[in-house]
């Protein structure tokens, strides 16, 4: 396999920054091996959900933004009939291509096109609220669900994978700029890069 | 101005792109009726009041929407997917449920904005 290189480059600076004693946010790059987009033809949404379940074992609620996360695998809806499916391991693309037939929809392997950035901690909601005009409270954005939004034309897909944890997917070419902004925004609460 | 996207819920208008008047209908592509094409491309009613428009949620789910908007007050009325039946599965009952669930939070959000 080709060894993958992080797009963050010199912007990736492990350690504690901002407030020294108690970081309010932890920021990391999970580097999933597979990021795959599934698009169902109109009317085939249920078949696509079944195929995702077959390939990943994840049961996704059939509602806008519905998602789930389990054992290194995640999936969530981000648009009508569209889902992003993520696996920490490589090889999800071929598995999903086998599971989703051409009558059901399409499979696009975006593993090298998207970068995952994880922000967690007690102030993660606060930091993300400075970027995106959506409600990050757990009542409005439950664990497992996904949201599509944008920050200054950086289109972003966000999945809440824990009470205080968000996985943010951005275009690889924007990843360093977004990461740098995220670090600047986290400075006031203190953050730790790992 | 906020537009309630049927998929994403209410979002700031900055996430949307205006794509034109939804009341015009494209002539048959084979038509050679010059006046018909001229009307389709150029003639607009420019109403002061209720209007039907095509918007795309370009900074979100990227769905094309038909938005009923009042051009005098910018009040946004009904919003639906531009491709009708296609997205019935996603045209969620959850939109209403979510709105109900989050409604107690709304005053708090407003209070914050007012400060």
Structure overview:
- The complex is a heterodimer of chains A (194) and B (115).
- Chain A has 194 residues and is α+β, with helices and mostly antiparallel strands.
- Chain A folds into two domains: 22-30 and 113-193, Probable tRNA modification gtpase trme, domain 1 (Gyrase A, domain 2); 34-109, 2-Layer Sandwich (Alpha-Beta Plaits), CATH 3.30.70.
- Chain A contains four helices and twelve strands.
- Chain A has helices at 45-56, 92-99, 124-129, 172-186, and strands at 15-17, 25-28, 34-40, 67-70, 73-79, 82-87, 105-109, 114-120, 146-151, 154-162, 165-171, 191-193.
- In chain A, strands 1-12-2-8-11-10-9 form a seven-stranded mixed β-sheet.
- In chain A, helix 1 packs across helix 2 (92-99).
- The longest helix of chain A is centred in the last third of the chain and has 15 residues, at 172-186.
- Chain A is globular, with a radius of gyration of 17 Å.
- Chain B has 115 residues and is an alpha+beta fold.
- Chain B has a single domain, classed as Folate-binding superfamily (Folate-binding fold, 2-Layer Sandwich).
- In chain B, the strands form two sheets. Chain B has a four-stranded antiparallel β-sheet, with no helix packed on it.
- Chain B is globular, with a radius of gyration of 17 Å.
- Residues 85-115 of chain B have low confidence and may be disordered.
- The interface between A and B is medium-sized, with 26 and 28 residues.
